[in-house]
Write a structure and sequence with these properties.
about 10% helix; globular; six-stranded mixed beta sheet; mainly beta; single chain
Amino acid sequence: MSDTALHQAVIGGDDKEYLSFVLADEHYALDIKTVKEIRGYEQVTKIANAPAFLKGVINLRGDIVPIVDLRLKFNVGEATYTEFTIVIMLNIQDRIVGIVVDGVSDVIRLMEDQILAPPEFGVAFDSRYLHGLADVDGQMVILVNIESLITSEEMGLVAPQSVNEDA
């Protein structure tokens, strides 16, 4: 992460901060508030009958953490694992989940008016999991609604939040 990006991440503001990452040739970003840490890929314990995108689980300081390969989930790029493969550890609804990506780019800050509505077609995954698109330095970045994706029924990694019946 560049010093400028780190400095921007520390200062606050009316804008929202995203961690940008790469899958194949596409640039994505997710809400930085969900990021717990960034690590290298390590060997996982496989889970029988799990979908292909669920690589397995690891023990992270006493927490059993599922590892999801977003390259397989979004059907983009080769799923190779080297010393350069990155895992972003996320904290979603008090559950830690790791996502495998090709690389982490930077921290970006966007005002809400810089975010374009997601298209209804032409993307590698369901637009329900998109927050939108943004032009960052002449490059289109896909903003993933990572909480919706991780808590979706098809992922089955986090129990859906119970609806507050008092409201």
